[in-house]
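FORM 7B - TANDEM STRUCTURE REPORT

SECTION 1: FIRST PROTEIN
SEQUENCE AND TOKENS:
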Amino acid sequence: MKNAAMVAMALVFMAAPAAAQEGDAPDWANKSGAVGVGATTTLGGTSGINVRTYVTPQLGLELALGFALSKDEQGDFSFDQTEFQVGLYGSYKVAYWQRGSLSAIFGADIDSVSQTSGSGDSESDDSATDLLIGLGLQGEYFPTQYLSLFAQAGLSIDFIGEDEVTEGSIDSAPDRSGFALDLGTDLFGSAGFTVWFK
């Protein structure tokens, strides 16, 4: 609960300096038609680079990509894992100032993991794909025309199957299905930046 309050305060403080600006301040937050590149962690957990654009002054799109490789060898035993994450999100500005905005965000993340482990002829291959839906709020502030800082808070819905991706590892259980709700309140894990090009 303490983390949730911190994220809510951060969203408000990011928008507050922009709200106090005079009406003739430069409109840095209008990125209609612009493209931005940066880094983020989405509500569904995709962590890596992001590409953003606004198709209208209010409606934005974001593609986030994450990739990880890991390898461990101990004697004859070896473990190799590849993880690929992709998130596609939309945002709609519900409050707008010349240098900031508060947006509703919605989208989906896919987390795919494949791993090979074992020794000699007893190696095994496993793979799992996870689908998560994210809904929440994003506060964004433009300290300059070409840089924005943002924080997100919200809810992620995880659809659980027999082969589940849990913190980057495969968790297998036969005859398992359902979904899980997670309230994302980690400020560091839900923040990022974008460098804009126009």
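SECTION 2: SECOND PROTEIN
SEQUENCE AND TOKENS:
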Amino acid sequence: MDVAIEVRDLVVVRGHKEVLHGIGTSVATGGVTGLLGPSGSGKTTLMRAIVGVQKVRSGSVTVLGQPAGSAALRSRIGYLTQAPSVYADMTVRENVRYFASLYKGVTRADADRAIADVGLSDAANQMVGSLSGGQFSRASLACALVGRPDVLILDEPTVGLDPVLREELWRKFRELAASGVTLLVSSHVMDEAGRCDRLILIREGRIIADDTVDAVRRAADTHDLDEAFLRLIRAQEPVEVAS
């Protein structure tokens, strides 16, 4: 397979605590890979390392054939953080047009298209600071999409959104993947796992599964992905030997 992201033996230490313990994984080009795990499992740290904004102790991360954080990748990666990175004292349109101006060849029309793609056309002239939580997140997503990135890193993109909007966003993610964009989407909600092409299940800084959705189900011998996650955790726990 063509590989968009390659992580090898990655160790990250934050606050004198090792949070990623020599993990490795590959993310294929042009699909949706889900990064699933409970809060505090290391999802955001791994994503930050892929984007190139996380200091690492050892190991390597390569994106599109370049070391993570390389200048050549800046216009090729879109990153949606958990904390929406938009300006509250500007309108939605002003925010997205500002981010569009940072990319060569990206126009105001592209900015308006990104706003429409996240369902914010009716709020385009509204100050971001006055938006609801879900709208705020969508405004940030539009800013991540406007540069037409080859790789899109989305950290908990559907948190706080109603089911209808979640469905619309996932439809957009599938369209992007079909067009060749590589998406890495994190979530702690296992019902979103079934929407992905491939899953990386992470717990306490270690990858416990890295395969297609069907393969994860088969490995855990259950169709329920919540139960699959629990069974995979139990399978890795040490067995106590009676004395």
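SECTION 3: OBSERVATIONS ON SECOND PROTEIN
Helices lie at 43-51, 92-101, 108-117, 133-145, 163-178, 213-220, 225-236.
The two ends are 49 Å apart (CA to CA).

SECTION 4: SIGNATURE
Preparer initials: ____
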